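Blackboard transcription, Thursday session:
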Amino acid sequence: MSEGEVLTAIRALFPALMALSSLALVPLLKLWRGPERDGAAIHATAGVQVLLLATSIGAALAGAGYLSTLKIGQISIDPSEPGRLLVTLGGIVFAVIVGSGEGRRASTMGQIALFGIAAIDLSLAIPAGIAPIALLLFASVAISGAAASGKDDVSRARAVFRDLRTVSLLLPAVVIAEILRTAISYAAVDASYATPASLAAGTALGVSIVLIVAAGVFPFHSRLIKIFEALPIVGSLLVGVWIPSALALIVMSELSVLASSITDPLGGAIVPGILLAGAATLIFGAISALLHDDIGEIVGFIAVGNAGWLALAAAAALQSPTDTSSRLIVLPGTLAISLFGLWLVSVRRRYGTTSISELGGWARRTGANGIALISAIVALAALPPGAVLAARFNLLLLGGNPIIAIFAVIGQLILIGAAVRLLLIGFTPQSHVVHEAETRPFANVITISLIAGSIFVAAAAAGWLSIEAGGTGPLPPAPSVSPATSFDPGPSADPTAAPTGEPTPSVMPSMSEEISPAP
Amino acid sequence: MPSFELPLVLIAILAGTLAVTSAGRGAWVAIGILALSSSALEFSIADPNRIGMALRLSAIGIGLAAALPENLFEVKALRRDLAPSTLVGTLREHPVVVASAIAGLLLGLVPLALPIESSSDALRAAGVALLVVGLPPLLTSRFIEATTRAAVVTLAGTMLLRTSIFGALDPLSALAIGAGFTCILVVGGSVATRISNAEGER
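(Written on the board underneath:)
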């Protein structure tokens, strides 16, 4: 292996290498501090934070160019712009969250974050198909299992069990979608098959189901709520928000290619169904967030509201495959929910409670947490109006249904209202719990990093830094998927109707070779 | 390999059926046999290097090593639990599952529409039968170990169905799916242990 190939491998696999290096670094740091358990935990946490930040900087420097494309035989690892952007911002977000979380398990949570963002980077670097989706789904199960370990808590174990069951059910859906997608090319040349539009609808349904279930779109929201209730915040954010966002990017890319490969409208009621699910999710998440009194559940329902936007984006990707708005909103939504997670972990750590009734006056007592929540609200509202807000409105226009659009806008306003309610509670008279809580001085590394991190992430989420466009970059194209050559070609209903390779007028050739021609 | 296909298909379906109907030793041994037979079927086609099969078997081996309950290999108990009369008795106690497996096998043997009609009959039959056997307990079971085994059966069936149409997985996908098998077994085993510990404490 030449020096250049080694450098390429390091560039391509940098996040994964950093995650693996944490397996050696954390035990070494703990060993170095010896019997001082608290000191060892603090040093291990600091070490993991450094690794997270190094991953972030390394991913930004390595980028997604051809110099980072690794080829091993037929395997290609081609880091994508969205993947590298998620790693760059994810490293910063999780470094701040791990620092705010403190505690003896903070370094373990940091390691989980390292492996989570490495899995996201890798899955967005390998050609679309079953491998990246399987990698993300199984990474989700592994992360929830690891995040829930260390404590014999039934509710945590049940949340992991639910995730395991969900993932095991989603993989058959992906394979069925893959089979139907292949059938589209047959339908193009043989009239005895179903129409391309109906097969494309089946494929779109199979692929969308993965996004809808994994992201927690109504009526599959309860998995997401249980995750936010039961798992530590790093695990909750990775399993409930970051991994579904990476899945959303893959799914939207697949849907765009699928929709652009047929000229007839999609069969069935796929697009209206997804639009309706998206609007219902926004309204449901928003009203539930407003009605609940546990900040963990409220953040969970705000995440459900964000899942509604992902569903609306999936419908828009089917309606208008060339428009990038659908992929533009994924990253800002992820960052906004992560800010709420950062605020949640910080408040929970400081006051030891998640009940709103016991958190009166929290913002007056800990101003840094107040800044974190204001940043989260700014990110959620995407203020001041810019590219992110424009992309959201564009999605509603692409949906083409004014009632759905009105419901979505109302849902988003209620979501913001639910978040503002949390802030207002912070300015009410201090409760007993808040009054008695220990606070640290303002000039403290953790406090300063919380404030700086919140403002930076809010700026990225609200579109001030203009980096969100990187999330719309192309993903590695899918390999040609066709039935194995070792099998005999399938006889059609009419033996004389041999495939000619000439597409019917209803089928447009796909530029990305997503759907291979029939053999 | 084609001459071994039919016996392997029957062994895989029987093992899958026993994996979701038995408890304890019988079920875990059945999962091991299912892993061996389904991997042999899946990677017998278009994979001359058998890299995928090696990855799959290693992954399931690691997963099983982590998930297997204690005292599984007590010879006396194993002999009792794996006696033909016990296995036949288990199958007779679950006629619906057995009927589902047979129905799945027959359904899979019939050439269906779309590209499936150009696929391998034996693999398709095994895939559909394992899906039909694995999906109901995966959806409904409240027992974690049983759900974990049902997940493995469903995943094996899904991969066989896919292989029957597209051929063997490429090494990267084989690695991802292999890691998935390990993940399901390890996480399922750990969740089961944690819940039983927590319930024991209570």
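Lecturer's comment: Chain A touches chain B through 55 residues (CB under 8 Å).
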